[in-house]
Amino acid sequence: MPYDRRSPFVQRATLFEDFVIRCVRWAFANLDPNVGRIFFSKYISIPFLRFRMARHGYFRPPVSWREVAEDGPRGHKGIWIEKDACRNPDVVIYYAHGGGFAMGSSYFYLEFLLSWHALLAQHYDNPAIFALEYTLVPDEKYPVQVYETLGGYKRVLRAVNGDPHKIVVAGDSAGGTLMLSMLIEQGLMNGSKSFPNPNGLREGPPGTQGQELRRSASETPPPELCVLISPWTKLISRQHKNTESDYLDHTTLWKYGLKYAGSASTQNWAVSPGLCKDMDLWAHSSPRGGFFITYGSEEVFAPEIEELLTKLSGCTKVESSKEVGGIHAWPVVSLFLSSARQQRLKGLESLTSAVKKSIQRQSTSMEGKNQSRSD
């Protein structure tokens, strides 16, 4: 096919990348999600990770990781990736994976997260990542996953001795939905539990003393930064349209969205956070360092992501990176598909750069050395 007749993604992709994305596109639209659930599960993902590591001469993980769980009706599970468990981390990435709520696991994302941790270790003394292993649909539906996300955040908050300025919440696709829902839930709690402005006036813009006074009393203070990769901002939207380049299929996405919502309406912003138009609530919900959102120009979610960017820019700090010809969650996908190191890490390096702008390096050589971790 002539170059000018190829889709924007194919124009920039290798033959291998093009072939794999075509296969994924077909599978996403036609296969039962249970097939994907098995493929992305722990018992397939871990051997796959070990195989890919062995190919590059690594026979053990470059950094330790461990599984953790908290039982109870609002418990949660996840994976800690950390350089030194005896010291408190100077930055924690709290990550929620994608997969349409119906498939995917933190174990499949381990290579991506281990690579991110290696980049963070170049700039921080003791970085850590906590990857949430939330319950998939149809085993549970909304709001269970949001409760689990909130529970995981509190675990991370304990790990940094209650200092939210060391926390970056992050996620891709459906994981981005969960992080946005969690932030809005925190915003609601911040608005109701915080001390009002002593003058009885509305608080000022983000970063002002009035906002900090209100947030200081919150039981769940917001994180320092939110980093999102191709977030699924609205479960169902007329702006969701298939493209020649992207592997997502909007009809399949809507089916997943309806299953996740369960008895809740998909037009409820608690389920579909991109629908929230309350700018005061967004101001309460926004991290102090704002948002960094990366997405592809050719993905199904692009119009809604751009709408969210416009909305957020009216009440908080927002930076974004739009990959021309890019498709859904390319920083994650490229790590598995691209052969050149520069291309594999390009997306992760942009995420790391955003984190560096918000969280300064602090020495943790003595901080927390003799304190017991409660995570």
Task: Describe the fold and architecture.
The protein has 13 helices and eight strands. The chain has a single domain (13-196, 214-358), classed as Rossmann fold (3-Layer(aba) Sandwich), CATH 3.40.50.1820. The chain has an eight-stranded mixed sheet with strand order 1-2-4-3-5-6-7-8, with helices on both faces. Strand 1 (64-70) and strand 2 form a beta hairpin. By secondary structure, the chain is α/β, with parallel strands linked by helices. Keywords: Hydrolase. One of its GO terms (molecular function) is hydrolase activity. Pfam families: Abhydrolase_3. Residues 94-330 form the Alpha/beta hydrolase fold-3 domain.
| Main beta-sheet strand count, sense and barrel state | 8 strands, mixed
Uncertain runs are: 193-217, 364-370
Identify the CATH class: Alpha Beta
Rg from alpha-carbon coordinates: 20 Å
Question: What is the general shape?
Answer: globular
Total number of strands: 8
SSE-based structural type: alpha/beta
| Architecture (CATH level 2) name | 3-Layer(aba) Sandwich
Q: Might you state the CATH topology name?
A: Rossmann fold
Order of helical and strand elements: HHHHEEEHEHEHHEHHEHEHH
The named CATH superfamily: Alpha/Beta hydrolase fold, catalytic domain
Q: What level of helicity do the residues show?
A: 40-55%
For the largest beta sheet, what order do the strands appear in spatially? 1-2-4-3-5-6-7-8
**How widely separated are the two ends?**
55 Å
Beta fraction: 5-15%
